[in-house]
Amino acid sequence: MTMLAPSRNPNLRSLLTGYRPLPGAADELMTPSGEIRPHWLPVLAEIASEKSEAISQRFAVADRQIKNSGVSYRVYDTPGGSDRPWPLSHVPLVIPHSEWSGIAAGIVQRAQLLETVLSDLYGPANLVREGALPAAVIAGNPDFQRAIAGFSPLGGEHLIVYAADLGRGPDGHWWVLKDRAQAPSGMGYALENRLAISAALPSLYRDMRVERLAGYFQAMRSSLAAKAGREGSRIGLLTPGPANETYFEHAYLARYLGLLLVEGADLTVQEGIVYVRTIEGLKRLDAIVRRLDADFADPLELNASSRLGVPGLVQALRQRTVALANSLGAGLVEAPAMLAFMPALARRLLGQDLLLPNVATWWCGEESVREEVERNFERLAILPAFTRHIEGLSRNGAGAVADHDEEGQARLAGILKAHPLEVVAQEVVRLSTMPVWTGKRLEPRPFALRVYAVATPEGWKVMHGGFCRVADTTDPRALSMQHGGRSADVWVTSEGPVDHVTLLPPPGKVAIKRRLGHLPSRAADNLFWLGRYLERAEVTLRVVRAVNELAAEADEDVAQATERLTDQLIAWGAAKSEKEAARPKLGKAAATAPVAIAETILRAVLNGDESGGVPSLIRSAARAASSIRERLSRDATQAIADLSAMVQGDRDLQVTDRADRYLRTIAALSGLTHENMNRLAGWRFLRIGQHLERAVQTCRLARRLADPGASVDMLDALLRVSDSRITYRARYLMGTLRLPVLDLVLLDDGNPRSAAFQIIRLAEHLDELPRVVREGEVDPLTRTTHLLRAEIETTEAADVDERMILSLENRLLALSSDITARYFNQDEAMAEIAEGLG
């Protein structure tokens, strides 16, 4: 050990001012005598090489990396839940290779043990039959899935991905706090942490020879491909959806590993085979990475109330037509009650003691154990034995230590007596601490480390690093990301040169691809509606801006145009009608009444909660975008987030300023999607949604503002809203006339705001999408769009009347329904004849 000598470096002295290990807890940075552990010296030297302001600026690089990547997690304690930026702790946890090798060996041993236990419990059940495990611990566990008992998963393994939460005790040894076998989370966040911290401390990262994470993900992808077992196999990542707290990670991992991100509604089971619904019909799915709790995975055989799962999935597993990581029964071994039996099971099944022992745990369902727990009540924590909630107990044991007071002891004694089979007693865990940067110095904070392993044909592969959760306070139980915890990168240092591992294939081994795989129907649906919501918000804002500008003119004809536009906003559902409430207060001021009414309506459109109002449309667009996060660029995702923030934060600005600001952001977002998205099916559905919505709204505005008796101000308002005034003025020297206006906004295929332009682009995009029809049949969708295009291209301005415009509008709305039926809610009979069904 090297003695701490802060007097030689004032920055170091300032850095460590007041840093003291917490009483009764080990510390990663310091020994109890105040010596710095050798593997931390390079980190301290790097941080102490500059003043605190400079170091904070470097750590700000990591924060920008996290923000620019859109890393977030969902917090449930807000109304409806909200996405929050990922909280990054800037100092990495450093573990030398010599220590890590012991951790890795313990993880491999434990993964092998749990796999053996699962294979027995869902197979011959010898452990229960021979008394090694009480039947109540298994049968009473809600995560024991009887539906999958008696058959072996495809590939023969229940565990493909395993993780364990570790903590270092006061004695300096690592202990397993919890096994993670259901659907281990956090590995995507671990990767983002690495990208952020290595960007902030690049030279330190290089000089310390930090082991790479890519090797683990490479092994994981290869293992999944091997499980799929079919040439050109498809692998999906099954997510509960964007409302899940770690949905960002699901989308990120799907993109990074090249998996298809799917929700339960994307999948269907036909004759025991799992298919994904795509715009090209049903496509077989060969393997699934499950991020959905098992109970919700199949409403037919598991939780009947689930709306997240795949009906028939259990039957597909029985028929061994799909590989699942992890099996539906794997969550059984996560129960705290199982920890009580792990040491004995290791000796029985492996002939070894646990290399990484778990925190001492006693299941209270046995009388002798319960009596022992009661004798040592004051030093133990009482917590639920399974995932079921027990009134008065939290799952992590917070508030469950009996020595608080007599009332607390009596309460816990009552719980123990009433629910002996449902609770366990555990030693109170005092986690070790690691340094955290506070902006000026380092302070110790408790942490827990999650380590991952993946089963490969060559054995278990352990990630060289992990997911580290750090408490914001000195309370070792405050590690939840839901309640203020932070996350740190984990640096495992190497004793020699670090192998450069990448997921990229070797040179010359790359198969050139120009498609991104099959587009799931749900993703196409969300892209389509993202386009429609953004376009609807844009035209609403253009009307708001036009009304505000016209309201400044106290002319009767202008007031009539204003009233027509506000009526349109009400018809769209952007605001409720305020006419009857406003008129009595205005008396007989006929010319100014529409203006005053307009002011009331515009405030409602920008601030209210009506379904057609701007806040609601932006929220709907953001929801659609959140479901297809993996298909949007980082800049596009950020632009949508910025737009959502503006709607909530700009309420003190003037109406025109707000409308202008929102319109500029929507225009930037439209430019990003137009310029940065590949011209594949996803981009086409986004554009189809935009073109369809613009065409429909243009028809509605034309009917409202360009009837045969329309005034010049009404026609001019139509040009304003359709952003066509400059073109009209350049083209026509005379005043604003009805037929030229109608020709420009409805029939001119060179005007990007006209209905004709939208219909032509619609037809072009739809022609490029896959068709699911029988040979020799004319595709109805093609017929519809080509007839629309032919009609709009051959119509003259003199032929345009309200009946023609209304017919065009209704046919466009019918086209929207046809697109939905064809690509988003496909008829199974039609899908079955899709090319490549099997």
Automatic annotation (TrEMBL):
Segments forming domain DUF403: 519-824
Transmembrane segments: none
A Pfam family recorded for this sequence: CP_ATPgrasp_2
Signal peptide residues on this chain, from the entry's feature table: none
Segments forming domain Circularly permuted ATP-grasp type: 92-471
PANTHER family, A to Z: BLR2978 PROTEIN, BLR5612 PROTEIN
Protein name per Swiss-Prot or TrEMBL: DUF403 domain-containing protein
